[in-house]
Amino acid sequence: MNASTRSGQFQLCFRPLSGSGRSFRFPCDAVGRVDLDDMSERVRNNYFYARAMIGRELAAPAVETWH
Predict the structure, then answer these.
(1) Is 64 in contact with 34 (CB distance < 8 Å)?
(2) Residues 52, 60: contact at Cβ < 8 Å?
(3) By mean pLDDT, which of 8-12, 14-18, 30-34, 59-63 is the weakest?
(4) Rounded mean pLDDT of 39-51?
(5) What is the pLDDT of residue 9?
(6) Is residue 2 pLDDT above 80, yes or no?
(7) Which secondary-structure segment (H or E) carries 13?
(8) CA atoms within 13 A on the CB side of 25
(9) Cα angle at 21 between 30 and 31, to 5 degrees?
(10) Per-residue pLDDT, 19
(11) How many angstroms separate the CA atoms of 23 and 60, rounded?
């Protein structure tokens, strides 16, 4: 991964389709690539869950700047 991923400038955000529910955020680069090798097993499982729930419980992810 590039330096911007490691410094945490960007995050990939999965937001709930409904007004309530859990959102998921993962460090990424400017185009939304995450470093799976840098994630703990728990975070990696949450990432795969979020991807699987796109269109069911979660909206398509968006790259945002890290606050």
Answers:
(1) no
(2) no
(3) 8-12
(4) 97
(5) 92
(6) no
(7) strand 10-14
(8) 9
(9) 10
(10) 78
(11) 11
Cβ–Cβ under 8 Å, residues 4 and 17: no
Decide if 65 contacts 12 (C-beta within 8 A). Answer: no
Across all residues in the chain, what is the average pLDDT?
Answer: 89
Q: Which of 28, 19, 12, 11 is nearest to 57 (CA)?
A: 19
What is the distance between the alpha carbons of residues 59 and 15, in angstroms, rounded to a whole number?
Answer: 6
Both tokens of residue 53?
Answer: 């729930």
In 41-67, which positions are buried (b, 16+ CB within 10 angstroms) versus exposed (e)? eeeeebbeebeebeeeebeebeeeeee
Q: Average of pLDDT values for 10-32?
A: 94
Q: Please give the distance of CA 19 from its chain centroid, rounded to a whole number.
A: 19
pLDDT reported for residue 8: 63
